[in-house]
Write the structure tokens for this entry.
Amino acid sequence: MTARNEKGALKARVLLDYSHDKHVGWITIDNTAKHNAMSLAMWEQLGAVLDQLTHTPGLRSVVLRGAGDRAFVSGADISEFVHRRRSPKDVQAYDVAADGAMDRLYNLEIPTVAMISGICFGAGMALAMCCDIRIADESSRFSVPAARLGVGYPLKEIERLLQVVNPPAALDMLFSGRRLTAAEALAAGVLNQVHPSMDLEGKVEEYVGIVATNAPLTIRASKRIVRELSGRGPADEDTCARLVAACFASADYVEGSTAFMEKRTPRFEGH
């Protein structure tokens, strides 16, 4: 699915670009002619790239963004539904690819950030909800248009939406299908931060830079525990306890305590 570019970074052959710099992985959805709409090939490539991320040493966060400044992701590429979702078998294959990619993104152990500029509709919203943090510019617009298309919005995607916004806000988006401005999305809890367009990339780089300086084991434990507490079932207390214990048993804990006493910046290695 992928090839190497001149700098040695991983690059997908069609419509999706992945590279990493220091501790940050950057995934770019690149289908600007269709406002970065997701095709079946793109879902498959995204899943493959996310699989590779789990084996990338030293990676401490991942940023998902859309190419250009007109869209993050405008939705699924509906133009290919006629031949890609013609039979029940086709529909199942498509859903396996899309759901698999979103599950991989959602289940990454390291922090994930959606960097959003422009349109974030449908599948774009679903991808954004799979990320831990959403940082957008003032041009961004958000919508879950399922009710306008007669599409049933899946349980898993509504569950992820409810982990981000409260039920009344979710129902408003699902009932109306209306487009939220960046300010409305921030107020509803969809977004963590909103910045002027010219500042967006710098603010995202600043945020993931902060994450990269903090203790990876602590961050992974925090992410897992928050997910456990916000899930449908009871939290897995044993797993949470093991993750917390691993932090206290790590060299990073010694480094953090020593750096605090010595009044210097700690150098965390993730073990």
About this structure: DSSP finds twelve helices and twelve strands in the chain. The first strand starts at residue 2 and ends at 4. The radius of gyration is 19 Å.
